[in-house]
Design goal:
- The chain has eleven helices and ten strands.
- With 342 residues, it is α+β, with helices and mostly antiparallel strands.
- The protein has two domains: 83 residues; 234 residues, Bira Bifunctional Protein, Domain 2 (BirA Bifunctional Protein, domain 2).
- The chain is rod-shaped, with a radius of gyration of 42 Å.
Length: 342
């Protein structure tokens, strides 16, 4: 190894280093020249073959080269890293990621649709507390003291009590709000009451311990059962389609007299019978009736002057009928395969 060869090697090495423009080229230079078995290390190992009189000169050239290369390499690496960090990490030319779009729960969709129909018919929307006392939930609604609904197996009672000493409870229907409306405002009254209700029932394909109701109340001086029928038929035609067949059946509720239940022709099988309508061809959609005179008296209204009607829907039931679902539990299992269909 001669002095001329060493000088040529130094020039080539510095030229290679100073021509680097990318991190990839810099890494390749490191692997070629600066590692333990790189070219600079190999040149230093060949010093033993150099004549004694030239060793100091060639040794100084190689040491100066190694020091210069290491300094410039470190500076160049810092420069390239800074340049890379300043580059945008997002490519604005790439297409955006599609966002998964959610929707309201099917029960809330049904509730909103029903509320919209009744609001267009002139009903106001009222709400009330979920925790009720015995008077508003039972007594004022003409429930006798020995009615089964007052039993522990049907109602969630709380440990705290009302001023009379009776335990408070989670409301079993939204009817207590009807009582509060009649107590707090003078007739005429025309309102719907949507909300959650609670019953101490075993969870099954047909029942839940917590579900939703929408009840309605209309109080006026000349309200009749014909008005109730007209309201229910108008709602059914807007909810299920015009021209649908319907019928009213006698029923019993403590807070209405006379009482009825309204059925509509099964819109899934058109009255031929299917699993949803239990092969009867009819679907029960609402319980209703004229407000019982005892309820009017309990709320401070004269039944000789004021009459009214009330009705109540189970929102989960309406949702099941519209969707053809035969198990109410499916609505609350958070199964995306079902929920994304609404």
């Amino acid at each position: 190894m001669t002095r001329h060869e060493v000088e040529t090697f130094c020039q080539e090495t510095l030229a290679a280093l100073r021509g680097i423009t990318t991190p990839e080229q810099l890494e390749q230079f490191r692997l070629t020249y600066l590692v333990q078995k790189g070219r600079i290390r190999q040149m230093l190992d060949q010093l033993r073959t150099v004549p004694t009189e030239e060793k100091p000169i060639i040794g100084r050239l190689l040491n100066d080269l190694r020091r210069t290369v290491e300094e410039e390499f470190a500076a160049l690496r810092a420069q390239l890293e800074h340049a890379t960090s300043q580059q945008p990490t997002i490519d604005p030319t790439l297409p955006g990621r599609p966002l998964a779009r959610g929707s309201l729960h099917p029960v809330l969709q049904t509730l909103d649709r029903m509320v919209d129909i009744f609001v267009r018919m002139g009903f106001a929307v009222a709400t009330g507390p979920d925790v009720e006392d015995d008077y508003h939930n039972f007594e004022a609604l003409n429930f006798p003291p020995d009615h089964p609904a007052r039993d522990m197996q049907d109602t969630f009672f709380l440990r705290c009590t009302d001023p009379s000493g009776k335990p408070l409870l989670l409301r079993t229907h939204t009817s207590p709000v009807q009582v509060r409306l009649m107590e707090s405002m003078p007739p005429p009254i025309r309102a719907i009451i949507p909300g959650r209700v609670y019953r101490n029932e075993a969870i099954s394909a047909r029942s839940l311990a917590e579900f939703h109701q929408l009840e309605g109340l209309c109080i006026d001086e000349h309200t009749s059962f014909a008005d109730l029928k007209g309201t229910m038929v108008a709602f059914a035609e807007q909810m299920y389609g015009s021209g649908i067949a319907y019928r009213f059946r006698p029923s019993f509720f403590p807070f209405t007299e006379p009482s009825a239940e309204m059925d509509i022709e099964c819109f899934l099988c058109r009255g031929k019978g299917c699993r949803v309508c239990k092969h009867s061809g009819w679907l029960e959609i609402v319980g209703c009736g004229m407000v019982h005179p005892n309820v009017l008296r309990a709320c401070g209204l004269d039944p000789e002057r004021w009459q009214g009607y009330a009705f109540g829907f189970g929102i989960e039931r309406v949702t099941m009928l519209l969707a053809g679902i035969d198990d109410i539990r499916l609505l609350y299992e958070n199964d995306i395969r079902l929920l994304e269909q609404f």
